[in-house]
Amino acid sequence: MLFDFARIPHEQAYKLVVASVVPRPVAWVVSQDRAGNVNAAPYSFFNAFSDNPVVVGIGCGPRAPGAVKDTLANIEATGQFVVNLVSAANAEQMNITAIDFPPGVSEITEAGLTTTPSAVVKVPRITESPVALECEIFQFVPAGRHTIVMGRVVALHVRDDCMLDPAKFYVDTPKLELVGRMHGRGWYARTTDRIEIPRISVAEWEARKKGAAD
Questions:
Q1: pLDDT band at 66 (very low <50, low <70, confident <90, very high)
Q2: Less crowded by CB within 10 Å, the N or C end of the chain?
Q3: Which residue stretches, if any, does this entry annotate as coiled coil (predicted)?
Q4: Is 15's pLDDT higher than 90?
């Protein structure tokens, strides 16, 4: 079926996109204002976009008409943030930090989480997260109602038991047990069900075609 985005309300276009572009990794973003007040919030409009420099991006929507979310306001104020990745073990706590608490309420405290000082940026990371990416602002990209926050990754933390070989920078990715965002308001996917599809070189592809023709 065809859905012409020029002819349907943007709410319906959004519904179609988030139900089909799945799974999406979850950025559990920690930021803080100039006074040092820490905020934590999850974003599933998130991914990595560049390798040199390493740049990740999150899409921050508005909190209310004419207002920006705390995450965006804090990053605009300090230029720093930390992206924590979400494992199955802390998915419920991540969901708690998505609650629209009133000002002055700590999402991290409400979720029973703790923080650990970062190595490069002033913003702390979530201790319970298996991976944390320390970021400095690279660029703000206006995108309609959203602002795409591009962050340059300046340091990355991986839980010790999730490294296969630190000297070779090999991560035990399955052991991270990360989750991804799916459709609707509450569906997620585990990354424990995997298939391996090796990359094919031109020579291998030509040999495969030749074998099929023989």
A1: low
A2: N
A3: none
A4: yes
Average pLDDT value for residue range 169-190: 96
| Apex 151 CA angle, 135 and 164, nearest 5 | 55
Structure tokens at 87: 């494992």
15 burial type by CB count under 10 A (0-12 exposed, 13-18 middle, 19+ buried) = middle
First-to-last CA distance in the chain?
A: 40
- The model's pTM: 0.93
Per-residue pLDDT for 106 more than 90?
yes
CA-closest candidate to residue 82, choices 143, 18, 149, 140: 149
Of 189, 187, 164, which Cα lies nearest the Cα of 175? 164
The label of the residue with tokens 């047990």 reads: 177
Q: How far is Cα 6 from Cα 179, in angstroms, rounded to an integer? A: 33
Torsion, CA 30, CA 34, CA 36, CA 40, rounded to 10:
-20
Nearest residue to 124 (alpha-carbon basis) of 106, 138, 139: 106
